[in-house]
Amino acid sequence: TYENGVILNLIEFTEETASIGLIRKLSLKNDINYFISRSEYKPENGISSQSTGVNIGLKHKLSRYSFVAFIGGVQKNETPSGESDGAVLNAVYGTRAELSSFKIKVGRQFSGSSVGSLVEKDQLNVNYSQKLSPLLSTSVVVRYLLTRPIDNNIASDREFISLEPKLKFALSRKSSVDFSYRFRNEKRDDLNLDAKSSAVFLGISYAF
In a 10 Å sphere around its CB, with 0-12 CB exposed, 13-18 middle and 19+ buried, how is residue 114 labelled? Predict the structure, then answer.
């Protein structure tokens, strides 16, 4: 739940996505993948939208421990205000060492919104993990998202930032417990007001 969420007209939603893909190895360092996806955006106010995407990705190994990937495609969107097509672009870089890993992703895509309009999404995701000891590890996920309406003058630009650090402790080879904190902040360009949210999570996992 967001503080000031009602004032900023933040609406809870669910998004269902299904995809199918094919990966083909071109060489020892290059892979190409094809995939089709279908998603449905369902806000609580009932103004739903659907999108279908066809994408092609190319992954190149820079070394034994690092890679870059580029994904591009076309997305068809169906909203209450009509149908439209848009380009989807993503770039990913990842690397890992003996005790750590790092991945960054930048991209642009489209989706529906709670007011029935199509929005353009520019996003940046950063993931970092570090093993502190044989039993203890930590990670942090940072996400930045900027949405812009492209077919509705009623909606406004929104900026979203999320920060989630996590601490994980291995109880045994098959079980672990993790503790995480998530901070989220969202603001609209037409209102001098932020909506903030904080949450604490405790998780227990066991592998059979």
Answer: buried
As given in the structure block, the two tokens for residue 16 are: 């269902």
Residues 88, 91, 96, 100: what is their CA dihedral angle, to the nearest 10 degrees? -70
DSSP string of 14-26?
EEEEEEEEEEEE-
- Spatial distance between the Cα atoms of 162 and 197, rounded to a whole number of angstroms: 9
CA 4 to chain centre: 23
Task: Round to whole Å and give the CA distance between 127 and 49.
Answer: 29
Question: How big is the chain by its Cα radius of gyration, in Å?
Answer: 20
Q: What's the CA gap between 54 and 185, in Å, rounded?
A: 32
The three-state secondary structure class of 150 is coil
pTM of the model: 0.78
pLDDT tens by residue, 144-192? 999 887 765 555 788 899 999 999 999 988 899 999 999 999 887 766 6
| CA–CA dist 2, 8 (Å, integer) | 10
Long-range contacts of 92-99 (CB under 8 A, 24+ apart): 92/67, 92/68, 93/66, 93/67, 93/68, 93/69, 94/66, 94/67, 94/69, 95/65, 95/66, 95/67, 96/65, 96/66, 97/65, 99/130, 99/131
pLDDT tens sequence across 44-90 = 766 777 888 899 999 999 999 999 999 999 888 777 767 777 788 99
